[in-house]
Amino acid sequence: MKKMIVTIDGPAGAGKTTVSRALARRLNYRHVDTGALYRGVALEALAAGVSPDDDQALERVCDAMDLTFVNDGQTQRLFSGETDITDDIRADEISMAASLFSAKPLVRKCLLETQKKMGAEKCAVFEGRDMGTVVFPEADVKFFLTASEKARALRRFKEISPDSGVAFDQVQKDMRTRDENDSTRSIAPLKPAKDAIVIDSSDLSATDVVEMMLQRIMDKK
């Protein structure tokens, strides 16, 4: 099979991370969670007391950042400099903030080159929100993975610790807000690429989705 770039875009809770990791393993490709990069920016900006509206301060944060992925043999970890921030970027407040920071042109410009370099050698599965539309419009195979709002919110709710006290209604409300932010922003809005293969995972298991994707990829070999 020829070397390929495969992109998987879609909203939060659609199952992108689970599916893209499994797909990458089946293909023996690298998996790149680009959403983690935007979460990393949000984490560093908030830690520095920088708001999404402060372009000058945000640019300084981006210039000083050194985000890298490290494979520990089982999972992919995100480091900021020498600090492992993989777990920190999964906090709910970082998820919401990432949606706001990712709408800033200077943040997208900062991370665009990083992502392009990661895809230079191909043999990679990139998951995100604008992989097939902006970052890799020339990707060999593009998927857009979606699901109903209720199904996505339920998946996200199940990931939250019962001790957190967060109610399902709040999870669904936050997801609706993020969907609105991501799909209506002027820069790289969340939407399927014109040539993307759209898969609704509402009633499908991750295994089912991966098998569907593999079949489409094999058709391209």
Tell me about this structure.
This protein is of the alpha/beta class and 221 residues long. It has one domain (5-218): 3-Layer(aba) Sandwich (Rossmann fold). The chain is built from nine helices and eight strands. Helix 1 crosses helix 9, helix 2 (34-47) crosses helix 4 and helix 7 (149-159) packs across helix 8 (168-184). The longest helix is centred in the last third of the chain and has 17 residues, at 168-184. The radius of gyration is 17 Å and the shape is globular.
Strand content: 15-25%
Kindly state the number of beta strands: 8
Unreliable residue stretches: none
Return the structural class: alpha/beta
Fourth-tier CATH superfamily name: P-loop containing nucleotide triphosphate hydrolases
Element-by-element helix/strand order: EHEHHEEEHHEHEHHEH
Percent range of helical residues: 40-55%
CATH topological fold name:
Rossmann fold
- How much is the radius of gyration in Å? 17 Å
Total separate domains: 1
Average the pLDDT over all residues and give the rounded result. 92
Distance between the termini: 5 Å
Biggest sheet, strands in spatial order?
2-6-1-7-8
Task: Give the second-level CATH assignment, the architecture.
Answer: 3-Layer(aba) Sandwich
Shape category? globular
Q: Outline the biggest β-sheet.
A: 5 strands, parallel
How many helices does DSSP assign? 9
Quick one: CATH class?
Alpha Beta
